[in-house]
Amino acid sequence: MKADTSLAAKSISLSDSKPRKERNMKKLLVKFSVYIFLILVAFTCLLPFYSMMVTSSHTNSEIARKLLLLPGTEFMNNYNRLIDTVPIWRGFANSLFITITSTALNLYFSALAGYGFSKYNYKGKNILFLAVLGTMMIPGQLGIIGFFKLMDSFHMLNTYWPIILPSISNAFGIFFMKQMCDSSIPTEILESGRIDGCGELKIFHRLVLPLLMPAVATLGIFSFIGKWNDFLTPMIILFDNELQPLPVMIASVKSQFSTDFGAMYVGIVISVIPVLIFFSIVSKKIISGVTAGALKG
To answer: Which residue, of 81, 88, 120, 158, is most buried by count of CB atoms within 10 Å of its CB?
Structure first.
């Protein structure tokens, strides 16, 4: 009897081990498939950057004639032609100043306005919010002539004010921050701040703004990239070449009869670097904010 029971136990354990091995194999296959998919996605995302770097190191004739897969040796020659054609680092500094200033104004006033729409009740709030959203449906190019005439009447042409000041009123930023305040800012926190004697602005700066930092970082990425790549408004508003930002200077490399592709690609490489640095810094803020919220929950 004991021998029969031991044989039965062994047969049961063997029968259980087979499905377990099959489940483990399925899990390994699923993980392997996921990793292969992620590698392909990463390769697809990195391919344009690799192509840009490779193209910037070849001559104009090679860029125009064939598909380039390997780096060349003409990067410094292209760079020298670029700095001889336009003051590229002056444009880099101009773009950096415009972008940082505009992004800071956009983030602060979008968070402030979104918080006001979310947590305060006043007459006409919904109508005003719909009016703000309605501005998102109007293409900015339609108002460029009126904007130019308005800036001319204010004597602001050929200055940075027409490029920076509109960042204060960003409809998408206000909408985004309002949604975040609705979902992540409890009213009890505001009431506790008022009980402690805090003013409304102090509540916003000390309580609300730290909780909105992941949302601020997310909006900062969109704002930074959009303002860094802004081309139309600076081209129309700024007349002095020394004031032009980087995208306008890179476009000016193209003449009426020819285009220096090598120099233009070097300029594009220079213009992409700050965006990558800013994204790598701010994305950590997003991840840390989400992780902190998960731990607190």
So the answer is: 88
